[in-house]
Amino acid sequence: MSDMVCYHGISVHDGFFPMARSRSIARKSALKRKLQSGLSAGLFDSRSLSSFPFASSGLPLCTSALGDEESEQKLMRMTKAELVELILQMREENTAFMSHPSSVCEEEEVQHGAVDFDSKEALIKALEDGIAWPEAGEHEFWNRGPRTGDDGTMCLSEDLQDTRKELYSANKSQSPIHIVHVTAEMAPLAKVGGLGDVVTGLAAASKRQGHIVDVILPFYECIDTTQIEDLVMERTFDSFMGREEDGGHLAMSTVSIECWTGKIEGCPVRLLKPQHVPYFRGGAIYGGSYNETEAYLMFCRASLEYMAQSGMDVDIIHAHEWQGAAVPMLFWELFSSRMPHARPILTIHNMDNTGECRQDEFAATGVSGSLFASVDKALDERTIGHNPERLCLLKGGIVYSSAVTTVSPTYAQETLTGGTAGFLQSTLAKPEVTNKYMGILNGIDTDVWNPATDPYLPACFSSQIPNGKSLCKKYLQRGLGMNEDPEKPLVAVISRLVPQKGIHLIEHAAVQTMEKGGQFVLLGTGHASGGLQGIAHDRFRENKDMSMLFMYSEPLSHLIYAAADMFLVPSMFEPCGLTQMIALRYGGVPIVRRTGGLADTVRDVSASGSNDAAPPLRGNGFVFDGVDAGSLEEALDRAFSMYTTSPQAWHTLSTNNMNDSFIFSWDGSGASYEQLYLGCLNR
User: Global pTM?
Assistant: First the structure.
């Protein structure tokens, strides 16, 4: 085979490549045990660990021999990918380790298993032959393995994937800083919306840059603690709360807080559990039977107390949303002398909830709300003259933060000029705020969302080996009981079904897709789904070109992204949006309304020069401006016309979208945040 081109497929069994997040913890623990047993057996010494590049350990490299205790600590800090790489390195360098039982990695933990094919056709045939096709009427086919027998998941080797890791891998910071996120969500542990994904993705990107990163979040009663690695109770400390009594007197008390530490997706976390108060209890992240405003205010104070009392050498305190907005307020009023080098930053993910707060509720921080009850601080202008006047936590966070970001450049501009920010527009427009306010586009996890390694797909694919996408389309069609027609364009929607998402336009698109001879698939839930349910269950009930599922499933979402030819996102406003970026990653062609992050990520194919440009200026979808059905229909018509009359142009568009999708990785967004962090510290 020395003279022939070789195409590589990799057979993976639960673990070497990015798999479902819920599976990763046990696999990583098993890998650690193997390496620790190698240390104990004396098969290699700590100097071997010293020479290994601990990209995410947060520890400096050591050139001298280390004691076993420190070596084991290094092992505990390694990511799963680093553990696998180290095992493979030890196998190559150390014959004794390779022959020892501790180094044998069971197939379900690590399976390197490279398979060479002498042609692209042979690889494609292997992909198709291993598919476990859904049976007729099979219930929830997406919840079982998509491939037959012990075939595991067929992944493409790295040289065939759409990655550009070399663009960021060398960009290690020369001045590492300590970043602490204070947040209500972190995926996958506590995830309701996009906030959790953003925190996890940004934290990981900062770690790859060489920074020290911690995340502080509440210890919700409902979380699945098995998703947390190495969970231990680190300490108990006292924070402070207050209660406003008659006459405005503030009665102070202490509240005992347990701090539990662990790791999520390789990132250190601190979970704060208040004792003897009923906060963060119940079966869901939000919507408990307690006062949520008071709970998050108490959490903000406790987070700062933990940083100060534990002696954390913090540089950046990054608060998120209204739940964390009191952090910068309290920092400058109470904590700046205890953490003199730190600077607070606030990210606003959505202006919908501004954190309206009674002054007596703010006493949950141990500080009187009257301290902030002025127009130049946190007073909600809409309540002036009311009894009582209220505070706006998001406004206070904006005023007190050293920098304020939102999640896309266009959304930032819309909040300043387009009315998206509501009454907060006047605060954002003040020169002292505008000068510190900017939009940084969110990223996506290009390891989790990677069609070349996705464990939920029956066939992997990339821009170099795109054939698997059509197999995924056929798989989804069969599983959902739809017509198996490769020529019909498949239009997909994955969305919360709320008015913000342009429900009336989604309804129109569903009908128009049927009339144009296409197929329509929807996955989502929400209170505004009534019209769509009527379309699915009445008008097109017997139509095998439509399937709407009013639910959410992570595995099914991956299948839909992989199968879709077109992906519809007609939002009325969209701070950032992740679905259009994921669709591009999987070779879909987005049809979007020009707003917020959609405008920043999707460029119309008809834009002047867009087809000859390099990413991100190259055309990658179809864009419309109006909120009316006619505007949507015009974009849908253009997409259908290209798909049906110019199949080669469509194929090029799809593969270009896969190839260019690296620009939406968190590494690019993380670089922008790094510049912001360093700028705040240098002012």
Answer: 0.82
